[in-house]
Amino acid sequence: MKILITFLMAITCMAQITPDWSRDVTLGPGENRANIYGLSKAELEEIKNEGYKHALVYPVTVSGLFIPYDPMVNFFKSQNSDLMKFILKLVGQEYADITSEEGLYQWLGLNKYNDENATGIYRIPYPNGEKPDYYMGASIVDTKWGKGLTFSCATCHSANLFGTTVMGLTNKTVKANRLFHMAKKFVPLIPNKMFQRVTGATDEEVEMMKRTKKNLKAVGVTNPQVLGLDTSLPQVALSLARRNTDEYATKNPFFEVFPRANELETKISDSKPAVWWNLKYKTRWLSDGSIVAGNPIFTNFLWNDLGRGTDLKELEKWMQENQKTVKQLTAAAFATEAPLWTDFFDVSTIDINAAKRGEVHFNNSCKKCHGVYEKGWSLSNANELPSIEVIKTVKVIYHDKTPVKNVGTDPGRYEGTKAFASSLNELKISKWMKTVVEPQEGYVPPPLVGIWSRYPYLHNNAIPTLCDLMTPPEKRTKTFYQIPAERKDQDFDSECVGFPVGKNIPDDRKKKEAFFDTRKEGLSNKGHYKMFLTEDGQEKFSASEKKDLLMYLKTL
Q1: All structural domains of the chain with their residue ranges
Q2: pTM of the prediction?
Q3: Where are the alpha helices (DSSP H) in 266-386?
């Protein structure tokens, strides 16, 4: 009995761990926060499952932008209606392929749910228990006006990897910001009476549409430079510029028409959404490490809903009343794991001896910024292990406090934070969340777990392969295409790890919207090369040594 009581008390204590979100938090050598709340294994699995459901279906019921769902379905069925013709004329040829609900999801770049037989990290829960017929990220939310469609975390933070959807992986082909841009352009012009007549919308659904139109006035938008990049920074900054400067950034009809000037109207600050599985190793957030305090999930809700025209008093109230939801999503994001090379390629494609040589080069030149990755081949019983276990990473030793480094990469993203940091910090909701934003000069050198799957590289996607990353900047690939990772034999260069480039690009992947030109503003592929040079500026590694280093990176 005494043992049982002790055990139950231990479990209770574990469940009461409160994460330290302060700027002073540190992690010990090899420590991570995969179990951010210190739960039992069973509890963590349960809470992670619920958290993923919130990532799949956006939980913020007071969010500012909802598309009346049933009327939308009816709209797509009425292919020859006056409303369809009116909208196609408004939005232009770029959106002409969006003629069905599924077509909308495909254009947006959403991913399908994995099948019921998926296992391990690829087993993604179904929000209602059965595999949905809509795509991940599409959120059909019950609101007081009826069913509304919006889009969730999984829109940007899940990706198709050779036919399997991976939770927490950056979506390479997402068009979320383009959707906001399109909505801002044409939704306010749709006549309410025509909308109701053609779609059969109820009076409540018409009110939902009116509310969305009204809230769009407080949303500032820009289109990304190229497919796969995100413009969340300008969307936050330009949306704040359309509100008052009081502690709740209340709406102001004057600023909605005549917003205050902000440098992100023209300055490029595009970046890609980060992978989730690195959260567990870090103590500050975003690619530039500018969130120096606060739960990043809170920050995500705030930024998302500022960019959706949400009333911040309503959002604050929702957050205060839905702490359990926030906790579940936080636990899920921090517990997310990376895909392994051997989940998709045979272990025989890894030359273990070459990878071991690569480890030496890595530890001599890369570990100072990116951490140490202890491998199975260093274990005392390595000779008894199968190859697939030998090449696994058994421990990650990252920094006690997440650093920021300036290695000469494009500064647009980290400079962009200056355009709105002080405004965010002054919000009452930020102070309640204890979130602090501080502009930095550089970027976080991220942990390299799952680096093979995270191509293209750098915060702005400017480097298509790991081979290119190890190439002198002046010789790097200048143009390439942002290709969805669907076909292992055509869409992926397994030798260089990343996109096929040059003559190897499949013709059907050469789409204008996916064309990446590193000579454009914000898309520079310069920097991150000093570590490959000796003190006198000579190449540190031979071509064969770089191949060994690349082989090692495949195993992370």
Answers
A1: 42-335, 341-411+446-554
A2: 0.94
A3: 296-306, 312-321, 323-335, 352-365, 367-370
